[in-house]
């Protein structure tokens, strides 16, 4: 059996005894897996045994580096026949081991490997869409489409995430209120199902698979190609932050701004987000570097309500052609808001630099050794009707003044989410993302923050605030049933149809892999 063991296409012959995969799955798979770049190199196995969260450890037997959809299909087909788990790995930026293989005999399919062919991103100018290999990063998609003056419409805050990885969740950011999540902006997919079949799907063709896979947590198939909608790319961004000491006013303004979705561009902002500031250190921290060192913000000087401040973050895209009217449009929108008048912070930058803003922070943190640390993140969708209770109980209650990372908060319109997809959101027309994006530099902090996350979830449960986790993590069958609620029956039926042997994305721990 030949295994592609490094980047230079050097093949080595491995014996039966040293390859746990062969021992595990038997010789039947051998012809299927030649040439898919299968590796058992310790270095590679270690690389796929951790993720960004650094809270779990995987145990894969081998890593595949397929370059084509057919190669992905061959690996999955082999897994289907020999019954071993396979997990697509995009960029491994999950928090709770969602892209890991936890069973000793499984294979990680590295979608972002070096073996991708040259056609992995193709821009169709006339059709205003781009066809992308599922393992490509959004930053790569952006670079390719900008060559044609085009760009996708809906983003995540951070672009070093894979297309397949974010489409398996939703893909949200400040544009979601207007364009919907990334999963709303996909025309077509190529998917390898859990039976190893390569299927093209869209709203009109194999629609059940299409909707199942979007937000499907990798449970129904591996996305090898996505066709993503494009728009003319703006050149620059006016980026504005304003502060609130009153939560009700902050929410009222955020909700007003997202109610302008669908209005002509000049009558709305292009991006609406926000964050919560509960300690002095945070406001001038990595994600808030916007507040310049020469102009530091002091919470105490702003009369914060219960020691908490709220920052609304908005942007307006523009080009040379409409630069003249920009200021007027912004002022007319700002006039309707009720922020602290002295707290307007503005900057102006190229569109790419705005979209890629978190990467700058990553480089800063990396240089200080603060990136590859445990991240006990918690992301919740909170229904609008209970966001004030959440503020009282969590921001002004459970959280001490040591947050260990940014806390994002912004609302979205449910009507921009296609209810046929697998993702679940609260039952109300408007719901908020609240994201606790924390880093733990030592075991004690990790314990403290993990415990705080549990307290927040318990508070929501006890107060009957019907939150839904985004990037969900549960360990029991009952919790998953509760998470999916009305969609659980459909989720199971889709699983039976597209991955009947339950071999896909076992790291999500939704289904128990049974060899
Ligand atoms: P992985 O972690 O590799 O995989 C995630 C899941 O998807 C796994 O179950 C995996 O098996 C499955 N999967 C991966 N590729 C495929 C594929 N091709 N086909 C089918 N299934 C697949 N999310 C947002 O929505 N908005 C944000 O603004 C945002 N910001 C982030 C910032 C940072 C710094 C980080 C670390 C994460 C952020 N996320 C955000 C979360 C991110 O979208 C998810 O963690 C996503 O899963 C990461 O993509 P990935 O490519 O690393 O996926």
UniProtKB/TrEMBL annotation:
Limits of the FAD-binding PCMH-type domain: 56-233
Please name the InterPro entries in this protein's record. Answer: Cytok_DH_C_sf (IPR016170), Cytokinin_DH_FAD/cytokin-bd (IPR015345), FAD-bd_PCMH (IPR016166), FAD-bd_PCMH-like_sf (IPR036318), FAD-bd_PCMH_sub1 (IPR016167), FAD-bd_PCMH_sub2 (IPR016169), FAD-linked_Oxase-like_C (IPR016164), FAD-linked_Oxidoreductases_BP (IPR050432)
- Gene3D superfamilies, A to Z: 3.30.465.10, FAD-linked oxidases, C-terminal domain, Uridine Diphospho-n-acetylenolpyruvylglucosamine Reductase, domain 2
Q: Which reaction does it catalyse?
A: N(6)-dimethylallyladenine + A + H2O = 3-methyl-2-butenal + adenine + AH2
The residue ranges crossing the membrane are: 12-34
Cofactors, names only: FAD
- The EC number(s) given in the record are 1.5.99.12
**UniProt KW keywords:** FAD, Flavoprotein, Glycoprotein, Membrane, Oxidoreductase, Signal, Transmembrane, Transmembrane helix
The entry lists its GO molecular-function terms as: cytokinin dehydrogenase activity
Q: Which Pfam families match?
A: Cytokin-bind (PF09265), FAD_binding_4 (PF01565)
User: Per the similarity annotation, which family is this?
Assistant: Belongs to the oxygen-dependent FAD-linked oxidoreductase family.
- Protein known as: cytokinin dehydrogenase
Q: What is the lineage of its organism?
A: Eukaryota, Viridiplantae, Streptophyta, Embryophyta, Tracheophyta
